[in-house]
Amino acid sequence: MAAQRIDKILSSANIASRSGVKALIKAGRVLANGQVVKRPEEKFDPLTTTFSVDGQPVVVRSYSYIMLYKPQGVLSASTDKRAKTVIDLLPDELKDRDLFPAGRLDKDTEGFILLTNDGNLAHKMLAPKSHVYKRYEVHCDRILTESDCQAFANGIQTGEQTFLPAEMKLLGENKALVEICEGKFHQIKRMFHAVGAEVIYLKRLKIGGVSLDETLAVGQARRLTEQEIVELLSRNHGINEEI
Asked: Which of 54, 80, 98, 106 is catalytic?
């Protein structure tokens, strides 16, 4: 891996923000290979350098995992010449190399989207056989009933497309939580359309064992914690038991 600025390396490791890391360096609390780091712009190879802060070793990952609260109207893409993308929303300190959205949310859908440069984890997270569930809040244009919940539980067949069984929990007359372990094109909208309902609002709340951080404002992002990275591939679900 190419050498990077020490303030970027340590902020990527969730030690502190870039400005916080600079303060640590100024106070002489950061070591690289046993030597005091004097300037935040000093560069090191994060995979071959040993770092410590206040005498405690720092674990540096080779990949990035970022939770973004995606707004409506933004594309789930790395680049686009005509429209704003999820990568465009990131502040400079989170714009690591080769980031891409792991899975997509429709342009008019908001909520939790994972940005990473770890292709292997993204593949595992998205593969139906991994049974990593994604949870959504859905508002529809008609009253939803227990018969809709049963239809989802049985799996949806629409045209030549089959959707695996999904779990639905009614929240109100036209609102529900839905969990799916697939990520097919417009899947939630197509499943509701198949039972005669149209989706008017859609928000992703959870991926695997990681919930959207509701302290984030729409459009804001943060790095995942070490525990959250592990829980991304969790198969835990069961909205009817949780609520």
From this structure: 106
50 backbone dihedrals φ, ψ, rounded to 5°: -95, 125
**Residues 66 and 224 sit within 8 Å (Cβ to Cβ):** yes
Supply the CATH number for residue 13's domain: 3.10.290.10
Beta-carbon contacts of residue 188 (< 8 Å; ≥ 6 apart): 136, 138, 178, 180, 199, 202
Residues 71 and 50 placed together within one structural domain of the fold: no
The dihedrals phi and psi of 161, each to the nearest 5 degrees, come to -100, 130
pTM recorded for the entire structure: 0.80
Rg of the Cα trace of the chain? 21
Best CA proximity match to 34, nearest among 21, 49, 24 = 49
Type of residue found at 43: K
Contact (Cβ atoms closer than 8 angstroms) between residue 40 and residue 5: yes
106 is catalytic: yes
Q: What is the distance between the alpha carbons of residues 36 and 3, in angstroms, rounded to a whole number?
A: 18
Which tokens is 55 given? 């005498």
The number of residues in the chain equals: 243
Does residue 87 share a domain with residue 45? no
187: phi then psi, degrees, rounded to nearest 5: -60, -50
| Token code pair at residue 201 | 């609002």
Give the dihedral of Cα atoms 229, 234, 240, 243; nearest 10 deg. Answer: -30
Q: Express each pLDDT in 47-98 by its tens digit.
A: 789 999 999 999 887 788 999 999 999 999 999 999 999 999 999 888 888 8
Of the candidates 239, 97, 227, the one whose C-alpha atom is nearest the C-alpha of residue 181 is: 239
